[in-house]
Amino acid sequence: MRSVWLAASFVAMMGPAVALGGEIELSGALGYNWSPHSIATLTSSSSPFDSRTDTLSWDGASFDPAPYYTVRLTYWSESLADWGFGIDYTHAKAVAKRAESGVDDTYSWLEFTDGLNLITANVFHKWDWDAARVYVGGGAGIAVPHVEIDTTAGSIIGETSTREAQIAGPAIQLVAGASYEVFPGVRAFGEYKVAYSVNDTVLGGGVATFSTNLVNHQIVGGITIAINDGSGL
């Protein structure tokens, strides 16, 4: 369902962009992602409102099903030379290293593997040299993680299980990359992305909240296709 919604959003954007003039690119990539340590807080939603704060280590699980991937639709304006605007969907991942973090007594499952989903609106600037291109960009949007958290009977909130996607908070990202036109209208690209997301989630139907802010580093490679200009972008 998420993929259908994303495709529909891309199609909805294409019409106005073509009417304004300019070029549209559709990009897809796989890659490797990882997150450094983060501070996480579990808080009971009922009296006595107990809370527990831990420092968590994370594994990106980039190549486990479903693997890390990112999809982007970019519109390069005719009137604003070398400036582009895009919608970016990133399926990043984060699995807590529970034993290493010392939280096995509280969590029997703790991850965002379906995934740490980020949707951002972005602005890009590019520099072209014949078939080569370098670009940078940044944007903001929302984090929609698929919350997969089980707490133990010995935790401050008792035994709970949560398996659902939630709109968890704002997200921002920065992008730097390079591409090369290998065929007319087709580019191979590689880039580095870093995203920061606020993940304020609800557990067990409202019995508690789990909050952590994650930095997610991404190294990706993929293909860009010009979908409204066969001469290449």
Describe the structure.
This is Outer membrane protein beta-barrel domain. With 233 residues, this protein is mainly beta. The protein has helices at residues 2-20, 98-101; strands at residues 22-34, 38-44, 51-56, 58-59, 69-77, 83-96, 107-129, 132-151, 160-165, 169-183, 186-203, 208-226. The chain has a single domain (2-226), classed as Porin (Beta Barrel), CATH 2.40.160.20. The protein has two helices and twelve strands. It has an eight-stranded antiparallel beta barrel with strand order 1-5-6-7-8-10-11-12. The radius of gyration is 20 Å and the shape is elongated. The model is unreliable at 1-8 (pLDDT under 50).
Provide a brief overview of the structure:
This protein is 10% helix and 65% strand. With 233 residues, it is mostly beta strands.
